[in-house]
Design brief:
By secondary structure, the protein is of the alpha+beta class. Helices cover about 30% and strands about 35% of the residues. α3 (about 310-350) packs antiparallel against α4 and α5 (about 380-385) packs antiparallel against α6 (about 400-415).
Protein backbone atom coordinates (compact mmCIF):
# COMPACT_ATOMS: atom_id res chain seq x y z
CA UNK A 1 0.00 0.00 0.00
CA UNK A 2 2.80 2.41 0.88
CA UNK A 3 4.40 1.64 -2.45
CA UNK A 4 1.21 2.51 -4.33
CA UNK A 5 0.78 5.68 -2.29
CA UNK A 6 4.35 6.69 -3.01
CA UNK A 7 3.91 6.07 -6.73
CA UNK A 8 0.79 8.24 -6.84
CA UNK A 9 2.44 11.03 -4.85
CA UNK A 10 5.49 10.92 -7.09
CA UNK A 11 3.27 10.92 -10.15
CA UNK A 12 1.43 13.98 -8.89
CA UNK A 13 4.38 15.96 -7.61
CA UNK A 14 6.87 14.65 -10.12
CA UNK A 15 4.76 15.80 -13.03
CA UNK A 16 4.12 19.09 -11.27
CA UNK A 17 7.53 20.45 -12.26
CA UNK A 18 6.85 19.44 -15.85
CA UNK A 19 3.42 21.09 -15.81
CA UNK A 20 4.77 24.27 -14.24
CA UNK A 21 7.03 24.70 -17.23
CA UNK A 22 3.95 24.55 -19.43
CA UNK A 23 1.49 26.26 -17.07
CA UNK A 24 -0.25 28.25 -19.80
CA UNK A 25 -0.68 26.09 -22.92
CA UNK A 26 1.76 26.87 -25.71
CA UNK A 27 0.04 27.30 -29.08
CA UNK A 28 1.15 28.45 -32.53
CA UNK A 29 -2.26 29.98 -33.15
CA UNK A 30 -0.88 33.52 -32.68
CA UNK A 31 0.52 33.28 -36.23
CA UNK A 32 -3.07 33.53 -37.49
CA UNK A 33 -4.81 35.09 -34.49
CA UNK A 34 -2.75 37.43 -32.32
CA UNK A 35 -5.45 37.62 -29.64
CA UNK A 36 -4.35 34.11 -28.63
CA UNK A 37 -0.93 35.60 -27.81
CA UNK A 38 -2.13 38.66 -25.89
CA UNK A 39 -5.55 40.09 -24.95
CA UNK A 40 -4.16 43.53 -25.89
CA UNK A 41 -5.21 42.71 -29.47
CA UNK A 42 -8.91 42.41 -28.53
CA UNK A 43 -11.12 44.36 -30.94
CA UNK A 44 -8.14 45.86 -32.74
CA UNK A 45 -9.28 44.67 -36.18
CA UNK A 46 -12.69 46.34 -35.86
CA UNK A 47 -14.83 43.19 -36.21
CA UNK A 48 -15.91 40.23 -34.03
CA UNK A 49 -13.71 37.15 -34.52
CA UNK A 50 -13.85 33.60 -33.20
CA UNK A 51 -11.24 30.79 -33.35
CA UNK A 52 -11.34 27.10 -32.46
CA UNK A 53 -8.03 25.28 -32.09
CA UNK A 54 -6.79 21.80 -31.24
CA UNK A 55 -3.23 20.73 -30.50
CA UNK A 56 -1.65 17.35 -29.74
CA UNK A 57 1.97 17.70 -28.71
CA UNK A 58 3.04 14.21 -29.75
CA UNK A 59 1.14 12.04 -32.17
CA UNK A 60 0.77 8.27 -31.70
CA UNK A 61 1.31 8.60 -27.93
CA UNK A 62 -1.61 8.17 -25.53
CA UNK A 63 -0.06 10.19 -22.71
CA UNK A 64 0.75 13.28 -24.75
CA UNK A 65 -0.73 16.67 -23.75
CA UNK A 66 -3.78 17.65 -25.76
CA UNK A 67 -5.17 21.18 -25.86
CA UNK A 68 -8.59 22.27 -27.10
CA UNK A 69 -9.37 25.99 -27.12
CA UNK A 70 -12.02 28.48 -28.16
CA UNK A 71 -11.47 32.24 -28.10
CA UNK A 72 -13.59 35.20 -29.14
CA UNK A 73 -12.80 38.90 -29.35
CA UNK A 74 -14.72 41.93 -30.60
CA UNK A 75 -14.72 45.73 -30.41
CA UNK A 76 -17.22 47.20 -27.94
CA UNK A 77 -16.36 50.74 -29.10
CA UNK A 78 -13.54 51.97 -31.34
CA UNK A 79 -11.32 52.22 -28.24
CA UNK A 80 -12.56 49.26 -26.19
CA UNK A 81 -12.25 45.56 -26.98
CA UNK A 82 -13.67 42.52 -25.17
CA UNK A 83 -12.49 38.93 -25.32
CA UNK A 84 -13.04 35.42 -23.95
CA UNK A 85 -10.59 32.53 -23.96
CA UNK A 86 -11.64 28.99 -22.96
CA UNK A 87 -9.00 26.24 -22.99
CA UNK A 88 -8.84 22.64 -21.83
CA UNK A 89 -5.37 21.12 -21.44
CA UNK A 90 -5.11 17.41 -20.66
CA UNK A 91 -2.05 15.25 -20.00
CA UNK A 92 -2.99 11.68 -19.07
CA UNK A 93 -4.80 11.86 -15.68
CA UNK A 94 -4.16 15.61 -15.25
CA UNK A 95 -6.60 18.17 -16.64
CA UNK A 96 -6.54 21.98 -16.64
CA UNK A 97 -9.55 24.09 -17.69
CA UNK A 98 -9.40 27.87 -18.11
CA UNK A 99 -12.18 30.37 -18.78
CA UNK A 100 -10.63 33.86 -18.97
CA UNK A 101 -12.37 37.09 -20.00
CA UNK A 102 -10.52 40.27 -21.01
CA UNK A 103 -11.17 44.00 -21.20
CA UNK A 104 -8.85 46.08 -23.41
CA UNK A 105 -8.53 49.83 -23.86
CA UNK A 106 -6.73 51.28 -26.90
CA UNK A 107 -5.13 54.66 -26.24
CA UNK A 108 -3.55 56.93 -28.87
CA UNK A 109 -0.58 58.76 -27.37
CA UNK A 110 0.37 60.75 -30.47
CA UNK A 111 0.36 60.34 -34.24
CA UNK A 112 1.31 56.69 -34.98
CA UNK A 113 1.89 55.99 -31.26
CA UNK A 114 -0.58 53.72 -29.42
CA UNK A 115 -0.75 52.00 -26.04
CA UNK A 116 -3.08 49.08 -25.32
CA UNK A 117 -4.05 48.07 -21.74
CA UNK A 118 -5.76 44.81 -20.82
CA UNK A 119 -7.17 43.30 -17.64
CA UNK A 120 -8.02 39.60 -17.55
CA UNK A 121 -9.90 37.53 -15.05
CA UNK A 122 -11.54 34.14 -14.79
CA UNK A 123 -11.42 30.65 -13.34
CA UNK A 124 -8.96 27.79 -13.54
CA UNK A 125 -10.15 24.31 -12.63
CA UNK A 126 -7.62 21.52 -12.08
CA UNK A 127 -8.54 17.87 -11.81
CA UNK A 128 -6.91 14.46 -11.50
CA UNK A 129 -8.77 11.41 -12.82
CA UNK A 130 -8.37 8.48 -10.39
CA UNK A 131 -11.06 6.23 -11.89
CA UNK A 132 -8.58 3.67 -13.21
CA UNK A 133 -7.06 3.35 -9.75
CA UNK A 134 -10.08 3.34 -7.46
CA UNK A 135 -11.70 0.46 -9.35
CA UNK A 136 -8.83 -1.76 -8.25
CA UNK A 137 -9.75 -3.31 -4.84
CA UNK A 138 -6.11 -3.33 -3.81
CA UNK A 139 -6.13 0.48 -3.60
CA UNK A 140 -9.53 0.96 -1.99
CA UNK A 141 -8.10 2.03 1.38
CA UNK A 142 -5.26 4.18 0.06
CA UNK A 143 -5.30 7.50 2.00
CA UNK A 144 -4.37 9.55 -1.08
CA UNK A 145 -7.22 8.12 -3.14
CA UNK A 146 -9.64 7.98 -0.21
CA UNK A 147 -12.32 6.39 -2.40
CA UNK A 148 -12.35 9.40 -4.71
CA UNK A 149 -12.68 8.95 -8.45
CA UNK A 150 -11.54 12.49 -9.14
CA UNK A 151 -9.71 15.28 -7.34
CA UNK A 152 -10.91 18.77 -8.29
CA UNK A 153 -9.78 22.23 -7.30
CA UNK A 154 -10.68 25.68 -8.64
CA UNK A 155 -8.90 29.02 -8.35
CA UNK A 156 -9.37 32.60 -9.46
CA UNK A 157 -6.97 33.91 -12.10
CA UNK A 158 -6.24 37.64 -12.48
CA UNK A 159 -3.85 38.93 -15.13
CA UNK A 160 -2.97 41.86 -17.34
CA UNK A 161 -1.34 42.88 -20.60
CA UNK A 162 0.32 45.97 -22.03
CA UNK A 163 1.31 46.64 -25.66
CA UNK A 164 2.96 49.56 -27.45
CA UNK A 165 2.44 50.13 -31.18
CA UNK A 166 4.36 52.43 -33.50
CA UNK A 167 3.58 52.19 -37.23
CA UNK A 168 4.39 48.54 -38.05
CA UNK A 169 6.07 47.71 -34.74
CA UNK A 170 4.25 45.93 -31.89
CA UNK A 171 5.93 45.27 -28.51
CA UNK A 172 4.07 43.89 -25.50
CA UNK A 173 3.90 41.76 -22.37
CA UNK A 174 1.16 39.54 -20.93
CA UNK A 175 0.89 37.98 -17.46
CA UNK A 176 -1.94 35.39 -17.43
CA UNK A 177 -1.67 35.15 -13.63
CA UNK A 178 -0.21 37.95 -11.51
CA UNK A 179 -0.07 35.86 -8.34
CA UNK A 180 0.57 32.29 -7.21
CA UNK A 181 -2.67 30.67 -6.12
CA UNK A 182 -2.95 28.36 -3.11
CA UNK A 183 -3.85 25.19 -4.96
CA UNK A 184 -3.01 21.99 -3.12
CA UNK A 185 -3.00 19.78 -6.22
CA UNK A 186 -0.35 21.63 -8.18
CA UNK A 187 0.16 25.35 -7.86
CA UNK A 188 -0.17 27.69 -10.82
CA UNK A 189 3.07 29.65 -10.90
CA UNK A 190 3.43 33.22 -12.07
CA UNK A 191 3.77 33.21 -15.83
CA UNK A 192 4.96 35.99 -18.17
CA UNK A 193 4.89 36.30 -21.95
CA UNK A 194 6.81 38.97 -23.89
CA UNK A 195 6.34 39.50 -27.61
CA UNK A 196 7.52 41.75 -30.43
CA UNK A 197 6.75 41.88 -34.16
CA UNK A 198 7.39 44.09 -37.18
CA UNK A 199 5.53 43.86 -40.49
CA UNK A 200 7.90 44.40 -43.44
CA UNK A 201 6.22 45.18 -46.76
CA UNK A 202 8.07 43.78 -49.76
CA UNK A 203 5.64 44.96 -52.45
CA UNK A 204 1.89 45.45 -52.91
CA UNK A 205 1.25 41.71 -52.54
CA UNK A 206 3.94 40.27 -50.27
CA UNK A 207 5.08 41.02 -46.73
CA UNK A 208 7.16 39.32 -44.05
CA UNK A 209 6.48 39.61 -40.34
CA UNK A 210 9.16 38.45 -37.87
CA UNK A 211 7.71 37.62 -34.44
CA UNK A 212 9.65 36.94 -31.26
CA UNK A 213 8.05 35.45 -28.12
CA UNK A 214 9.63 34.92 -24.68
CA UNK A 215 7.87 32.81 -22.03
CA UNK A 216 8.92 32.66 -18.40
CA UNK A 217 7.40 30.66 -15.56
CA UNK A 218 8.64 30.98 -11.99
CA UNK A 219 11.03 28.15 -11.06
CA UNK A 220 11.23 26.95 -14.67
CA UNK A 221 13.68 27.55 -17.55
CA UNK A 222 13.19 30.50 -19.90
CA UNK A 223 11.57 29.56 -23.22
CA UNK A 224 11.57 31.51 -26.44
CA UNK A 225 10.57 31.11 -30.06
CA UNK A 226 11.20 33.09 -33.24
CA UNK A 227 8.80 32.99 -36.17
CA UNK A 228 8.98 34.36 -39.70
CA UNK A 229 5.53 34.78 -41.29
CA UNK A 230 5.25 35.28 -45.04
CA UNK A 231 1.92 36.80 -46.13
CA UNK A 232 0.39 37.13 -49.58
CA UNK A 233 -2.21 39.90 -49.99
CA UNK A 234 -2.89 39.51 -46.24
CA UNK A 235 -5.03 36.52 -47.19
CA UNK A 236 -2.63 33.56 -47.18
CA UNK A 237 0.37 32.76 -44.99
CA UNK A 238 3.25 30.38 -44.51
CA UNK A 239 5.49 30.44 -41.45
CA UNK A 240 8.57 28.83 -39.92
CA UNK A 241 9.11 28.78 -36.16
CA UNK A 242 12.24 27.95 -34.19
CA UNK A 243 11.69 27.17 -30.53
CA UNK A 244 14.16 26.67 -27.69
CA UNK A 245 15.41 23.07 -27.42
CA UNK A 246 15.70 22.94 -31.24
CA UNK A 247 12.01 22.52 -32.01
CA UNK A 248 11.17 23.49 -35.59
CA UNK A 249 7.59 24.12 -36.75
CA UNK A 250 6.04 24.85 -40.15
CA UNK A 251 2.63 26.49 -40.57
CA UNK A 252 0.39 27.15 -43.54
CA UNK A 253 -3.01 28.82 -43.67
CA UNK A 254 -5.24 31.56 -44.99
CA UNK A 255 -8.73 32.35 -46.16
CA UNK A 256 -11.10 29.60 -47.25
CA UNK A 257 -13.79 32.22 -47.85
CA UNK A 258 -13.85 35.94 -47.08
CA UNK A 259 -14.88 35.07 -43.51
CA UNK A 260 -13.62 31.52 -42.87
CA UNK A 261 -9.87 31.03 -42.18
CA UNK A 262 -7.68 28.11 -41.14
CA UNK A 263 -4.10 27.22 -40.19
CA UNK A 264 -2.24 23.93 -39.78
CA UNK A 265 1.07 23.55 -37.92
CA UNK A 266 3.42 20.59 -37.64
CA UNK A 267 6.39 20.68 -35.28
CA UNK A 268 9.24 18.32 -34.52
CA UNK A 269 12.57 18.26 -32.76
CA UNK A 270 15.78 18.67 -34.74
CA UNK A 271 17.71 16.57 -35.49
CA UNK A 272 14.75 14.22 -35.39
CA UNK A 273 16.71 10.96 -35.59
CA UNK A 274 18.59 11.78 -32.35
CA UNK A 275 15.70 13.10 -30.29
CA UNK A 276 13.91 11.09 -27.64
CA UNK A 277 11.09 13.01 -25.99
CA UNK A 278 10.02 13.14 -22.34
CA UNK A 279 7.66 10.24 -22.98
CA UNK A 280 10.21 8.23 -24.94
CA UNK A 281 8.90 9.04 -28.42
CA UNK A 282 10.30 11.01 -31.34
CA UNK A 283 7.03 11.92 -33.03
CA UNK A 284 6.08 15.45 -34.01
CA UNK A 285 2.99 17.39 -33.02
CA UNK A 286 -0.09 18.69 -34.84
CA UNK A 287 -2.08 21.86 -34.38
CA UNK A 288 -5.18 22.90 -36.33
CA UNK A 289 -7.01 26.24 -36.07
CA UNK A 290 -10.27 27.28 -37.74
CA UNK A 291 -11.55 30.84 -37.42
CA UNK A 292 -14.54 32.90 -38.46
CA UNK A 293 -14.42 36.67 -38.99
CA UNK A 294 -17.75 38.47 -38.86
CA UNK A 295 -16.99 41.03 -41.56
CA UNK A 296 -13.96 42.57 -43.23
CA UNK A 297 -11.04 43.61 -41.08
CA UNK A 298 -11.03 47.41 -40.98
CA UNK A 299 -7.76 48.08 -39.22
CA UNK A 300 -4.35 46.58 -38.64
CA UNK A 301 -2.50 46.40 -35.36
CA UNK A 302 0.13 48.49 -37.12
CA UNK A 303 -2.39 51.16 -38.03
CA UNK A 304 -4.81 53.43 -36.23
CA UNK A 305 -7.66 52.21 -34.06
CA UNK A 306 -10.92 52.46 -36.07
CA UNK A 307 -12.51 55.86 -35.63
CA UNK A 308 -16.13 56.47 -34.81
CA UNK A 309 -18.27 58.76 -36.97
CA UNK A 310 -17.75 61.75 -34.69
CA UNK A 311 -13.97 61.42 -34.79
CA UNK A 312 -14.04 61.14 -38.59
CA UNK A 313 -16.31 64.17 -38.86
CA UNK A 314 -14.00 66.22 -36.62
CA UNK A 315 -10.95 65.26 -38.65
CA UNK A 316 -12.73 66.04 -41.90
CA UNK A 317 -13.80 69.41 -40.53
CA UNK A 318 -10.22 70.11 -39.44
CA UNK A 319 -8.92 69.30 -42.93
CA UNK A 320 -11.57 71.48 -44.57
CA UNK A 321 -10.72 74.32 -42.21
CA UNK A 322 -7.02 73.93 -43.02
CA UNK A 323 -7.70 73.94 -46.77
CA UNK A 324 -9.96 76.99 -46.41
CA UNK A 325 -7.25 78.80 -44.45
CA UNK A 326 -4.65 78.03 -47.13
CA UNK A 327 -7.06 79.12 -49.85
CA UNK A 328 -7.79 82.42 -48.05
CA UNK A 329 -4.06 82.99 -47.58
CA UNK A 330 -3.39 82.25 -51.25
CA UNK A 331 -6.12 84.69 -52.32
CA UNK A 332 -4.70 87.37 -50.04
CA UNK A 333 -1.23 86.77 -51.48
CA UNK A 334 -2.66 86.92 -55.00
CA UNK A 335 -4.38 90.24 -54.30
CA UNK A 336 -1.19 91.71 -52.83
CA UNK A 337 0.84 90.45 -55.77
CA UNK A 338 -1.68 91.89 -58.22
CA UNK A 339 -1.38 95.31 -56.60
CA UNK A 340 2.39 95.06 -56.60
CA UNK A 341 2.50 93.98 -60.27
CA UNK A 342 0.07 96.74 -61.30
CA UNK A 343 2.15 99.33 -59.44
CA UNK A 344 5.31 98.06 -61.09
CA UNK A 345 3.67 98.19 -64.54
CA UNK A 346 2.39 101.75 -63.90
CA UNK A 347 5.84 102.95 -62.93
CA UNK A 348 7.23 101.43 -66.10
CA UNK A 349 4.55 103.16 -68.17
CA UNK A 350 5.58 106.46 -66.60
CA UNK A 351 9.15 105.59 -67.59
CA UNK A 352 10.44 105.76 -64.04
CA UNK A 353 13.72 103.92 -63.94
CA UNK A 354 14.86 101.62 -61.13
CA UNK A 355 18.38 100.51 -60.40
CA UNK A 356 18.86 97.22 -62.26
CA UNK A 357 19.54 95.15 -59.13
CA UNK A 358 16.49 96.48 -57.30
CA UNK A 359 14.18 95.73 -60.23
CA UNK A 360 15.51 92.21 -60.63
CA UNK A 361 15.18 91.56 -56.89
CA UNK A 362 11.56 92.70 -56.98
CA UNK A 363 10.75 90.50 -59.98
CA UNK A 364 12.43 87.51 -58.31
CA UNK A 365 10.36 88.07 -55.17
CA UNK A 366 7.17 88.09 -57.23
CA UNK A 367 8.20 84.76 -58.82
CA UNK A 368 8.88 83.21 -55.40
CA UNK A 369 5.46 84.25 -54.13
CA UNK A 370 3.81 82.88 -57.25
CA UNK A 371 5.62 79.56 -56.68
CA UNK A 372 4.20 79.41 -53.16
CA UNK A 373 0.69 80.02 -54.49
CA UNK A 374 1.13 77.22 -57.05
CA UNK A 375 2.14 74.80 -54.27
CA UNK A 376 -0.31 75.88 -51.56
CA UNK A 377 -3.36 75.71 -53.78
CA UNK A 378 -2.32 72.72 -55.88
CA UNK A 379 -2.66 74.93 -58.95
CA UNK A 380 0.73 73.84 -60.31
CA UNK A 381 -0.40 70.20 -60.39
CA UNK A 382 -3.72 71.17 -62.00
CA UNK A 383 -1.94 73.03 -64.80
CA UNK A 384 0.38 70.06 -65.42
CA UNK A 385 -2.62 67.70 -65.62
CA UNK A 386 -4.40 69.97 -68.12
CA UNK A 387 -1.30 69.88 -70.33
CA UNK A 388 -1.58 66.08 -70.55
CA UNK A 389 -5.02 66.44 -72.20
CA UNK A 390 -3.88 68.73 -75.02
CA UNK A 391 -4.05 66.95 -78.42
CA UNK A 392 -3.69 68.10 -82.03
CA UNK A 393 -4.98 67.00 -85.39
CA UNK A 394 -2.44 64.59 -86.92
CA UNK A 395 0.64 66.29 -88.46
CA UNK A 396 -0.74 69.78 -87.71
CA UNK A 397 -0.87 72.45 -84.99
CA UNK A 398 -4.68 72.49 -84.89
CA UNK A 399 -5.98 71.88 -81.36
CA UNK A 400 -8.80 69.31 -81.09
CA UNK A 401 -12.21 70.43 -79.81
CA UNK A 402 -11.80 68.15 -76.77
CA UNK A 403 -8.52 69.82 -75.85
CA UNK A 404 -9.99 73.31 -76.23
CA UNK A 405 -12.48 72.50 -73.49
CA UNK A 406 -9.59 71.44 -71.26
CA UNK A 407 -7.69 74.65 -72.05
CA UNK A 408 -10.78 76.59 -70.96
CA UNK A 409 -10.08 75.26 -67.45
CA UNK A 410 -6.57 76.72 -67.70
CA UNK A 411 -8.06 80.07 -68.72
CA UNK A 412 -10.22 80.07 -65.58
CA UNK A 413 -7.18 79.34 -63.39
CA UNK A 414 -5.16 82.16 -64.93
CA UNK A 415 -8.05 84.57 -64.44
CA UNK A 416 -8.43 83.49 -60.79
CA UNK A 417 -4.72 84.05 -60.17
CA UNK A 418 -3.87 87.11 -62.31
CA UNK A 419 -0.19 87.25 -61.26
CA UNK A 420 0.60 83.76 -62.53
CA UNK A 421 2.30 83.18 -65.85
CA UNK A 422 2.67 80.01 -67.89
CA UNK A 423 5.41 78.57 -70.05
CA UNK A 424 4.27 76.30 -72.90
CA UNK A 425 6.68 73.73 -74.38
CA UNK A 426 6.09 71.70 -77.54
CA UNK A 427 7.73 68.27 -78.06
CA UNK A 428 7.66 65.61 -80.79
CA UNK A 429 8.91 62.08 -81.36
CA UNK A 430 11.86 61.31 -83.66
CA UNK A 431 9.91 60.36 -86.77
CA UNK A 432 10.45 62.86 -89.60
CA UNK A 433 13.36 65.19 -90.09
CA UNK A 434 14.78 67.20 -87.25
CA UNK A 435 13.85 70.50 -88.88
CA UNK A 436 10.27 69.35 -89.50
CA UNK A 437 9.88 68.24 -85.88
CA UNK A 438 11.32 71.51 -84.62
CA UNK A 439 8.89 73.53 -86.72
CA UNK A 440 5.92 71.39 -85.69
CA UNK A 441 6.73 71.74 -81.96
CA UNK A 442 7.11 75.54 -82.35
CA UNK A 443 3.74 75.83 -84.09
CA UNK A 444 1.93 73.62 -81.58
CA UNK A 445 3.26 75.56 -78.58
CA UNK A 446 2.34 78.84 -80.34
CA UNK A 447 -1.14 77.46 -81.11
CA UNK A 448 -1.82 76.90 -77.39
CA UNK A 449 -0.48 80.38 -76.64
CA UNK A 450 -2.81 81.91 -79.23
CA UNK A 451 -5.83 80.09 -77.80
CA UNK A 452 -5.13 81.49 -74.33
CA UNK A 453 -4.69 85.02 -75.75
CA UNK A 454 -7.96 84.73 -77.68
CA UNK A 455 -9.67 83.96 -74.36
CA UNK A 456 -8.44 87.02 -72.50
CA UNK A 457 -5.02 86.11 -71.14
CA UNK A 458 -2.41 88.86 -71.68
CA UNK A 459 0.49 87.97 -73.96
CA UNK A 460 2.89 89.17 -71.27
CA UNK A 461 1.82 86.22 -69.11
CA UNK A 462 2.47 83.54 -71.74
CA UNK A 463 5.68 82.26 -73.27
CA UNK A 464 6.02 79.41 -75.75
CA UNK A 465 8.93 77.41 -77.12
CA UNK A 466 9.38 74.27 -79.20
CA UNK A 467 12.06 71.66 -78.55
CA UNK A 468 11.31 69.30 -81.41
CA UNK A 469 12.70 65.82 -80.74
CA UNK A 470 15.49 67.02 -78.43
CA UNK A 471 13.87 66.23 -75.06
CA UNK A 472 12.26 62.77 -75.16
CA UNK A 473 10.83 61.31 -71.94
CA UNK A 474 10.57 57.76 -73.31
CA UNK A 475 12.04 55.52 -76.00
CA UNK A 476 11.30 56.38 -79.64
CA UNK A 477 11.65 52.71 -80.59
CA UNK A 478 8.12 51.72 -79.55
CA UNK A 479 4.67 53.12 -80.39
CA UNK A 480 3.99 53.70 -76.69
CA UNK A 481 7.25 55.56 -76.23
CA UNK A 482 6.63 57.79 -79.25
CA UNK A 483 3.14 58.56 -77.94
CA UNK A 484 4.63 59.77 -74.66
CA UNK A 485 7.18 61.93 -76.46
CA UNK A 486 4.52 63.73 -78.56
CA UNK A 487 3.32 66.14 -75.92
CA UNK A 488 2.80 69.68 -74.69
CA UNK A 489 4.05 70.67 -71.26
CA UNK A 490 2.64 73.71 -69.43
CA UNK A 491 4.28 75.06 -66.29
CA UNK A 492 2.95 77.69 -63.96
CA UNK A 493 5.38 80.45 -62.95
Amino acid sequence: MKKITTIIILAIFGLTSFLQAQQYPYLYQYILNKYSLSPAYAGLYGIPEGYLGYRQSRINVNYTPKTLGLNLNAPLTPKVGLGLNVMNDQADIFNNLWAIASYTYHLQLAENHFLDFSLTGGLNQKSIDLSNIIDNPAYANDPVINNRREINESSLEIGGALMYRFKKLNVGAFAPSLYENNSTIYAFKKHFIGHASYDIGINDNWSIEPVGVIRYTMDAPLNFDVTAIGKYKNKYLAALTYKRNTILAASIGGEITSSLVFMYTYDMNMPRDKYVGVLGDNWGGHELTVGYRFGTRKASPTGEVPEDDLAKALKTKARVTQVDSLTDLAKQMTDDLKKLSDSLAALRDRKIEFPGDDLKALEDEIKKLNAKILTMTGTGDKIAQIAKTVYFVTASAEITEYSKKKLDDLVLILKEYPTLSVKIEGHTDSRGTESYNQDLSDRRAASVKSYLMENGIAVSRISSVGYGELRPIDSNDTPEGRLHNRRVEIRGE
